[in-house]
Amino acid sequence: MALKLGTSLAALTLALSPTFASAQEEGPMFELHGGAGRTLFGNTLNDSEHYNLGLGMNLTNRWGVEVMGTYFETAFDEGAGFEAEGQQYRLDALYHLADLGEKARPYLALGAGHQILDSQQLMGGEEEDTLINAGIGIKYQLAKRLSWRTDMRVMNSMDNEYTDVAFSTGLSFLFGYSGSKPQPEPEPQQPLDSDNDGVINERDNCPNTPRGTRVDSQGCERDSDNDGVVDSKDQCPGTARQYKVDNTGCPIELSENVSIEMRVEFATNSAEVREAYMSEVKKVADFMNQFDKTQVTVEGHTDNTGAAAYNQDLSQRRAESVREVLIERFGLSADRVKAVGYGEERPTATNDTAEGRELNRRVVAEISTDVTRTKTRD
Question: Nearest to residue 70, comparing CAs of 49, 97, 52, 54?
Fold first, then answer.
């Protein structure tokens, strides 16, 4: 009879082999199980031991299916000498619950099957029942490919309305997988932002920025006006980009002295400003327009030809002529321009030659002032 159970179970295994083979190519875990137990019969049979042989396959980390065959020998409790042999064939679904530690895996079972009971007391010698079962069990890994398993099943006959309870234990050999328990998918790691500035570590060029500091896309404190000084140290925010600043973010100012000279020459005994010298006069006007706090004194001079008193008056008229050009032609305010004649008292060249006397017939102006400039970037 045991040989008959093994043959029947082999036939069921071969029937499912295409499914198993296909699944094995994808790397599932198979389980060959053998065990024993005791059945508490709910009909007229005496309680007895049973033997199990099965083949299962885990479809996912939680779900599996299993083909199981059971053999038992018992006797009817009515009368004497009536023994019986029984076989069961089941197809069960197993759902594995959350693991207990690293090796224990509890599970729930639900399935259906067929039972054949063979006895001389039965008419025709055999009785067949359709059974449904539900149960709970646990698997415990003993070695890489070996586990111990025990469970309890409640089996109900759909044909004769009785319920059996079976307790089983045994060993399972595992094959067709890498040998390690399936691991859960690792949770995606969130990028680290150690200083909590909103910029992940791999992009943070300024780690350990104090909390609450406004930072740029590189994790460094902001420099809103791009002057090279961070906002927390910038005492002059909004400085124009072209100006060079100090370590407080304020423009660097430089003090310097600037000056300009003008020389206008005149014809003999003339106080008229010739057009050829207008560019010299304009140069003074442009300088004074740039520096609005400057004032200028226009100095008139002559050579020594003629009486000294006349030359004094001529030099004054020459200075006044240049003054009028600055005011009337170039728009300077009258209170910023003064004219003084020195006659022949201050020659710059000898009066013994025509060339020297021409150099002495002149109007000159010199202006200098201290100004502060904002230093620009290179």
Answer: 52
